[in-house]
Amino acid sequence: MNIKQQLESTIDSALSAAGASNCPAIVKQSQKAAFGHYQANGVMDAAKQIGMNPRELAGTLVESLNLPQAEKVEVAGPGFINIHLDNSYISNELTKLRKDELLGVVREKSNTTVIDYSAPNLAKEMHIGHLRSTTIGDAAARILEFLGHTVIRANHMGDWGAQFGSLLAYMDLIGQEGQELSTELSDLEVFYRKASALRESDEVFAKQSREYVVRLQNGDPQCLELWQQFIEESVSHCQTVYDRLNITLTRADIKAESSYNDDLIPVVNELDRLGLIEVSDGAKCVFLDGFKGKDDKPLPAIVQKSDGGFPYMATDLAAVRFRAQNLKVGEALYFIDARQTLHLRQLFAISREAKYLDESQSFRHLPFGVILKEDGKPFKTRDGADVKLADVIEEAINRAYELVSVKNPGLADDVKSRISQVIGVGALKYAELTKNRTTDYIFNWDTMLSFDGNTAPYLLYAYTRIRSIFRRSNIDPSTLESSITLKEPTELQLGLKLLQFVEAIDAVTEDYQANILCNYLFELAGIFMSFYESCPILNAEGPVRESRLLIADTTARVLKQGLDLLGIETVEQM
User: Fold this and answer.
1) Which residues sit opposite 371 in a β-bridge?
2) Under 8 Å CB-to-CB from 88, ≥6 apart: which residues?
3) Which of 45, 139, 441, 539 is the most buried (most CB within 10 A)?
4) Contact of 127 with 241, CB cutoff 8 Å
5) How far apart are CA 257 and CA 315, in angstroms?
6) 196 and 166 Cβ atoms separated by less than 8 Å
7) pLDDT class for 34, splitting at 50, 70, 90?
């Protein structure tokens, strides 16, 4: 348990012994008082429950509390409990943390979680909108694995549907004209626009496109061969983006829509046997209580269209059934944009009714907002097309290269290129992760690439500044054996902040808000800068020097680990 949890557990036990079992303590670090000061709330609610004066109850609790880590415990205000941690306790805990590979994290019983994220449509290249799902979902996967859980990454790629009819018809046309298909497919976005435009302008081609859809769904060998060629090229495009963004998704994580084709009819038949299917305008639908349209009429969830085709709901139900019953996951996290909220609410409700999910399995939608331009409009090109994610990554790296060249022109070109890759990609991802997941945000190059403020360049600079201490002094931190001793105010502040790394990780997983970890790392870097200015390290003597070197090294390790959990690499110099 982290410090906060230890304090809460002790006070909760005391509250329960006093007869107030339904009023948990809420412990938080004081923002105004001295470092190492926590405050426990909840006593007033507990006092009301048992009919006791709040200050009197707080005094009784203070007398009964067994908190060896506290230097002083006192009653404050109308009934708050103030806890002042002992300096030696902070020093000892920090010494233990430094020797721990996991930096204080205790891996508890493992849970199996499937994370549905990224999920690009293979008919087109990945665009800027995919940055949110891909980056947020990947950070969640990294954090859960760090905590010891088993994570199944699920890239539910869209590789099926009507749009592929026109793409396959266009591929066939290119082949008949003797053009080289690989050259055409080198720009999927252009290829997609050409096929779509031809479908709109040429009725003969439009008819062929519809015929290709039927042929594809019926398993026509020639059609499947063309489809597989297109999918292979599309997946390669996506994997290139993932690799450049330092995303942990691989081809092995793809379970695309087409993989559930054989399950669609069985799913609809199962729903029918359970009496959940109603036919409306020729389509097979599920109507559930609680889902109403604007006119207050029951809202259908279509699982099979009137022409016999299957919409996303059928495929997604098959995916839920597979994840719950075949993979037997305890939890599933769907990082999908907020516009799909109704669809996912219906999906999970139908899955419960169909008994695909049992009471122990938690399937959650974790929505996110959209990326906007500075004028507040969706991030698109001048002609209204989606901005390619690959182009955004390239521009981020190029802009970072210019900054690095100005900041440190003496670096070799290959070193500058490597640093620019880390800074550019890190800035792009951090700008995403530092925002509240549920809100829209404005994309701004100058802000994300700034070396000031809550940005990746600032954190990377803080990390390299620490490493430069050891490089300049030719000291290997692994050879340092002393204990850490905290005496100065900024030493204590930094020591306590380092111990709160576990708190930050735990807080992220409550609602998968990565910005909590971003803010923690930003505050940690800022406190280190204050420590660096007020507490000489290399000029200190004896045990003080070695203690401060250990504090600096531990800070670097926490920064590196925290950035890694966000999917951001580090460099040793900038």
Assistant:
1) 441
2) none
3) 139
4) no
5) 6
6) yes
7) low
3-state helix, strand, coil in the chain (%, to 5): 55, 15, 30
In the three-class reduction of DSSP (H, G, I as helix; E, B as strand; rest coil), residue 167 is classed as helix
What's the confidence (pLDDT) of residue 384?
67
From residue 426, give the alpha-carbon distance in Å to each of 228, 251, 458, 526: 34, 23, 11, 19
Q: Which long-range contacts (CB under 8 A, 24 or more apart) does 467-475 make?
A: 467/556, 467/572, 467/573, 468/573, 469/537, 469/538, 469/549, 469/552, 470/549, 470/552, 470/553, 471/572, 471/573, 472/538, 473/538, 475/549
* pTM (two decimals): 0.93
d(C-alpha 562, C-alpha 433), whole Å: 12
Distance, CA of 22 to CA of 46 (rounded, Å): 8
Task: Please choose, from the candidates 319, 312, 22, the residue with its C-alpha nearest in 3D space to the C-alpha of residue 154.
Answer: 319
Ordered by where they begin, the domains of the chain are: 3-85 (3.30.1360.70), 163-249 (no CATH), 389-565 (1.10.730.10)
Residue 451 has what pLDDT?
A: 95
Do 139 and 433 meet the contact criterion of CB atoms below 8 Å apart?
Answer: yes
Q: What CA dihedral angle connects 299, 301, 306 and 309, to 10 degrees? A: 160
The share of the chain scoring above pLDDT 70, in percent, equals 98
Radius of gyration of the chain (CA): 28
Q: Which amino acid is at 90?
A: I
254 DSSP 8-state letter: B
DSSP letters for 374-442: TTSSBSB-TTSPBPBHHHHHHHHHHHHHHHHHHH-TTS-HHHHHHHHHHHHHHHHHHHHHTS-TTS-EE
Is the model's pLDDT at 35 over the cut of 70? Answer: no
Contact 563, 504 (CB under 8 A): no
Q: Is the pLDDT of residue 454 over 70?
A: yes
Q: pLDDT per residue over 216-259, tens digit each?
A: 878 889 889 889 988 998 999 999 999 999 999 999 999 999 99
Tokens 């279509």 correspond to 302
CA separation for the pair 419, 398 (Å, rounded) = 11
d(CA 423, CA 456): 7
Tokens encoding 135: 């980056």
CA distance 102 to 109: 16
Reported as type and span, the H/E element at residue 262 is: helix 261-273
